[in-house]
Amino acid sequence: MLAVAGCLALAACSGDAAGPPTATSSAGASRGPSSAGSSAAPSAPSSAGPVAGAPVVVLDPGHNGGNAAHRAEIGRPVPDGRGGTKPCNTTGTATDAGYSEHAFNFDVAQRTERVLEAAGVRVVLTRPNDVGVGPCVDVRGTAGQRADAAAVVAIHADGAAPSGSGFHVALASPPLNPAQAGQARALGTALHDALRGAGFHDSTYLGERGISSRPDLAGLNFATRPAALVECANMRNPAEAAVVSSADGRQRYAAALAAGILAYLRHP
Ligand code: ZN
What we know:
Number of helices: 11
Helix content: 25-40%
Strand content: 15-25%
Radius of gyration: 17 Å
CATH superfamily: Zn-dependent exopeptidases
Oligomer: single chain
Shape: globular
Strand order of the largest sheet: 1-5-2-6-9-7-8
Number of strands: 9
CATH architecture: 3-Layer(aba) Sandwich
Largest sheet: 7 strands, mixed
Bound molecules: zinc ion
Distance between the termini: 24 Å
CATH class: Alpha Beta
Order of helices and strands: HEHEHEEHEHHEEHHEHEHH
């Protein structure tokens, strides 16, 4: 509706063959908030009962399973949100054993979606599956405003030197609008605190106490809704590779991300 002229122009330049830039949630309204009520999500200490008002949250699982086979398509330049350009998308990283970041991101997003929906949140994913191409980072970056979202969380894992470990939360900096200046930081802090509360540790190699201020992430630069990007782990670190490769580990990340999002929604 108020979908912003610039947004339309940007969307138009993402002619990815890959399908819809913003896919609506697969689950939708079939599960009512009431299903969550009684027992509260097991891993969300600050969540008691459904969130009021059925807010929308965009989850943006980074990269995509078809990207590696479409290098030219994902390599083409798109606006970066600060007057420059960067590639439409990238392939992401993987563990040494070959478990891919795009698969991790999508699985954690789906798990997070389930926890959030049980708490009465409506979830929109930026891609409907893990076999497509893109969408481009500029399109991902405007997904929050298109969905009229209360929060946007991009889910990634890093591929750094094997000695480094831990998670970090990236925020657009310097801020380009009021949401980036204020609420995004509150969202990032809530995500950080929830991940710490779930037993994950601040990155040993990047950011300051688990928070990283970044000017170069188009997915954050374009956001006019509170947005944060979480690098959950370093997939090249052997110990963390084991965690991200296990369903239990991914559920722990999802529970923590959902707890952080719910904490933010309750006290933005
Ligand atoms: Zn990534």
